[in-house]
Amino acid sequence: MKPFLATIVEGGTSWELFEGCDVVLEAVFEEMEAKREVLAEAREAAPDAILATNTSSLSVEGMGADVGLHFFNPVAVMPLVEIVRTPRTTDNQLATAWDVIKKLKKRGVLVGDAPGFVVNRLLTRMTTVLAEAIAGGNTVEEVDEAILSLGMPMAPSVLREMVGPAVAQHVLETMHASWPDRFPLTPTGAGERRTLEEIRERALEAVADEAQHLLAEGVVADPADVDACLILGAGWPLFLGGAVTRSGKMAA
């Protein structure tokens, strides 16, 4: 007897298999033109389907998708899906996206179609601080230790390898194109060697500051959504109180 999934999953390379699909989820590599091409072909093969993309940082509307469904690695473990609504996303498309995520037993958070959405934008902002520390003389091992001591589930260097250096660099370039001052492609100066406490504090302050930018831009509707994204998508330690909570303390 075949396993249950084998009875409901069909693989293939023909666009004819997409006929009659209700939802099509694109997950090719992070390159805008490649995604546009695949989504255009999917639109032709399944004109009535809702086209979703799993992009981690690119414009959902710009590539021609109806909605974004950004899953996090490892997908089987991480509960978060950033549901990306564009100005053209209809209520029906959005409701269907929520229903799909619910059936997959994931936790969806509604976000706007802005570069990096929430989690990748915050984590990339943090990595710019870590890059500055390394440029100033700290070792990769020291930077990893500083972040792991916060209770993060994975060292930055390990996360970068899991995501892939090329993808991580592409996300940084996407952020830099919109906010060059906060997301430099290379460390802005030689700086100086920092203590682990200084690295931790600067990293947390950078995340808290970027969270305020997300709220000011309306990428999320509620401060709690920022913290939910970090906790569910990045394993952000609960005892830290969330990025928004920290930014409030900084302002005070």
Short overview:
The protein is elongated. The protein is built from 11 helices and 5 strands.
Describe this structure in words.
A five-stranded mixed sheet has the order 1-2-3-4-5, sandwiched between helices. Helix 5 packs antiparallel against helix 9 and helix 7 crosses helix 8. Strand 4, helix 4 and strand 5 form a beta-alpha-beta unit. It folds into two domains: 99 residues, Rossmann fold; 133 residues, Orthogonal Bundle (N-(1-d-carboxylethyl)-l-norvaline Dehydrogenase, domain 2), CATH 1.10.1040. It has 252 residues and is α/β, with parallel strands linked by helices. It is built from eleven helices and five strands, in the order H-E-H-E-H-E-E-H-E-H-H-H-H-H-H-H.
Topology (SSEs and partners):
Elements lengths: L3 H5 L14 E4 L5 H14 L4 E4 L6 H4 L3 E5 L8 E6 L5 H13 L3 E6 L6 H17 L4 H9 L7 H8 L1 H14 L17 H22 L5 H12 L8 H9 L1
Parallel strand pairs: 1-2, 2-3, 4-5
Antiparallel strand pairs: 3-4
Q: Give helix and strand order, one letter per element, not per position.
A: HEHEHEEHEHHHHHHH
Sequence of strands across the biggest β-sheet: 1-2-3-4-5
Terminal Cα span: 63 Å
CATH fold-level assignment of the largest domain? N-(1-d-carboxylethyl)-l-norvaline Dehydrogenase, domain 2
Largest sheet: 5 strands, mixed
The structure class reads: alpha/beta
Number of domains: 2
Question: Looking at the structure, what is the overall shape?
Answer: elongated
| Rg value | 19 Å
Q: Would you state the CATH class of the largest domain?
A: Mainly Alpha
Salient structural properties:
alpha/beta; about 250 residues; Rossmann fold; 5-stranded mixed β-sheet; elongated; about 50% helix; 2 domains; N-(1-d-carboxylethyl)-l-norvaline Dehydrogenase, domain 2
